[in-house]
Specification:
With 266 residues, this protein is of the alpha/beta class. The protein has two domains: 183 residues, Rossmann fold, CATH 3.40.50; 58 residues, Orthogonal Bundle (Helicase, Ruva Protein, domain 3), CATH 1.10.8. 34% of the residues lie in helices and 20% in strands. The longest helix has 13 residues. The chain is elongated and about 65 Å long. Bound molecules: S-adenosylmethionine. S-adenosylmethionine binds next to β1 and β3.
Length: 266
């Protein structure tokens, strides 16, 4: 069966067997796992994972790939294929018998950030996630305060998950090769919440506003959300910039902002 890779679906198929083996080893699948693959494509990872778990789910948008995937994978295990857009997929449907999901995938890079945000909303039913992403996106996820890559993605991901880079891979492992290096990241939702956040919406609003003008001081970027006395109350200097604030400090700021109704009226 012939299939030409489609750019609009972010199709860069893995063909390097040693890379595939390393990813499977990092996932370390067990027969009792509730495994879900996003974007199985032609089954490069699926065909190696399936014999180890016996049955798993796969979510694929490109309908033309499905007969190919069935032909390659059905002989090695029970694959439930969900022909749908993962951004609209209800992950809670796969959470059965109290078994948290293990989600894996060589993700389509064009939708990786919205997809990560969609998955974070489901962190409570996820045991872990292993994703191939653009290296630069993994740099941002793993960055700590003071690092140039530290931003909204770092804060939002680290609020829900532990972030570990597993390996970095050059373009030659894929067909067609992407223009950038890639990394595999392991995201493990925290068992207990690392910071207390009183108002989720306000937290997101504060983080977004702070990084939307990252060169500005917090006093300026958060002018409409946090008043001078609120900075003082939580002991955060308003002349600092967003990129210096830890997750805990963002939580403190948003908690104080959610106590008062608005910031300065100046
Ligand atoms: N897992 C395969 C591999 O490693 O060779 C394919 C990886 S390829 C980078 C991304 C896969 O995600 C493609 O199969 C593509 O069709 C699929 N895909 C793209 N957008 C998607 C979406 N919104 N929902 C589900 N799958 C999608």
């Amino acid at each position: 069966m012939n299939h030409t890779p489609r750019k609009r679906f972010g199709q860069n198929f893995l063909h390097d067997q040693s890379v595939i083996r390393k990813i499977v080893a990092a996932i370390n699948p067990h027969p009792s796992d509730n495994l879900v693959e996003i974007g199985p494509g032609r089954g490069a990872l699926t065909c190696q994972l399936l014999p180890l778990v016996k049955s798993m789910h796969a979510i694929e948008l490109d309908r033309d790939l499905i007969p190919l995937l069935e032909a390659t994978c059905q002989p090695v295990g029970e694959l439930s294929i969900h022909s749908s857009d993962v951004l609209r997929f209800e992950f809670s449907e796969l959470y059965r018998d109290g078994k948290p999901l293990r989600i894996v995938g060589n993700l389509p890079y064009n939708i990786s950030t919205p997809l990560i945000f969609h998955l974070l909303q489901n962190a409570g039913i996820i045991r872990d996630m292993h994703f191939m992403l653009q290296k630069e996106v993994v740099d941002r996820m793993a960055a700590t305060p003071g690092n140039g890559a530290y931003g909204r993605l770092s804060v939002m991901v680290q609020r829900y998950c532990r972030v570990e880079r597993v390996l970095t891979i050059g373009p030659g492992a894929f067909n067609p090769p992407p223009k950038v290096d890639s990394s595999v990241v392991r995201l493990t939702p925290w068992e207990s919440i690392p910071v207390m956040i009183n108002d989720e919406e306000r937290f997101q609003e504060v983080v977004r506003a702070a990084f939307s003008q990252r060169r500005k001081t917090l006093r300026n970027s958060l002018r409409s959300l946090v008043a001078s006395e609120q900075f003082e109350a939580v002991g955060i200097d308003p002349v600092r910039r967003a990129e210096t604030l830890s997750l805990e400090e963002f939580a403190k700021l948003s908690n104080t902002a959610s106590n008062g109704d608005q910031g300065e009226s100046r």
